[in-house]
Amino acid sequence: MPASRSTLARRSVIAVAALPLLALTATACSYGSEADDTSKEKVSAKGKALSADTVKIGYFGNLTHGTALVGNQKGFFQKELKGTKASYQVFNAGPSEIEALNAGSIDIGWIGPSPSINGYTKSKGKSLRIIGGSASGGVKLVVDPKKIKSLDDVKGKKIATPQLGNTQDVAFLNWIAEKGWKVDANSGKGDVSVVRTDNKITPDAFKSGSIDGGWVPEPTASKLVAEGGKVLLDESDLWPDKKFVITNIIVSQKFLTAHPDVVEAVLRGSVKTNKWINANPDEAKAAANKQLEADSGKALPANVLDPAWKSIEFTDDPLASTLDTEAAHAVKAGLLEKPDLKGIYDLEPLNKILKAEGATAVDDAGLGAK
């Protein structure tokens, strides 16, 4: 049943209230190897280089970053970049990717909304821009059906989230508050025990019984189901139109200013990747899994891959209003000093590409750079 407007407001308050924690904790979707170099192109750089010889692209090794996985694996980015070489790094956590962007170790990255906001506000609006969307959905509450048969049964149980202050953690804390239960956000102790557990460890913890479930992203959610878990709640059901941003595309403002043609090429590759993913879901799923195997050394089994992929929507729209709503309600509740998010988005290059593709322009919710 869709959440009420007041429910969504309170959810957003808690979600953004935890943003200051993100400098020390992981972002929405940590899963995979930390900053692994995966710069072996599937399509070699051919032709005349654009204004930069190389563009360094970052992403996470999980399915909610499927655009980056597929675009890398199928060579969509490299094809648009022509003679400019695309190199890739895989990250575990939002803060480390933001640090890499600030240090110039990467130029463009796929990342969650919370670290995007945090990186932008901490730099006083100077470090990055959000230049496009990538994915919505792919987050679920999965529980042990022998211990938890209804949402009310979650009270008194041990539920994992990826890390203190990450996107799933604050979403679960908000859901707990909506139920009228009390939990200390820092310790995770209270009417529900919130157990911060790395996504790589969560399936084993669930199997051993040390946790009773998890509010986790894909493919971790489907891994828990494969271990006998049951999906009790899909976070998409808590949002209007069942859509919320889970992955954005960010770029260093310095790189955007110096190499707009390269940024446009990567965005064009992203748009074409998403179009191909949505037109060829089975092939896209296989390509994403192949890239996961290349990055981590291990592919996902079909009983995990299939349901996980199905729950994610790939979109060029950054769903800016969902990010804006979170920030506005956090300020209204007095849980966060009012952040100046004006300028966090620069969707002009993306909308130029969408127009050329005959697609509908996307909106920046009044937070555009121009």
Keywords:
2 domains; membrane; globular; single chain; cell inner membrane; 14 helices; alpha/beta; transport; ABC_SsuA_sub-bd; 370 residues; D-Maltodextrin-Binding Protein, domain 2; 39% helix
Folded structure, characterized:
Keywords: Cell inner membrane, Cell membrane, Membrane, Signal, Transport. One of its GO terms (molecular function) is ATPase-coupled transmembrane transporter activity. Helix content is 39%, strand content 17%. With 370 residues, it is α/β, with parallel strands linked by helices. The protein folds into 2 domains: 5-136 and 243-356, Periplasmic binding protein-like II (D-Maltodextrin-Binding Protein, domain 2, 3-Layer(aba) Sandwich), CATH 3.40.190.10; 139-241, Periplasmic binding protein-like II (D-Maltodextrin-Binding Protein, domain 2, 3-Layer(aba) Sandwich). The strands form 2 sheets. A 7-stranded mixed sheet has the order 1-3-2-4-11-5-12, sandwiched between helices. A 5-stranded mixed sheet has the order 8-7-9-6-10, sandwiched between helices. Helix 6 (167-178) links the parallel strand 7 (158-161) and strand 8 (193-196). The longest helix is centred in the last third of the chain and has 20 residues, at 260-279. The chain is globular, with a radius of gyration of 19 Å. The model is unreliable at 1-41 and 329-335 (pLDDT under 50).
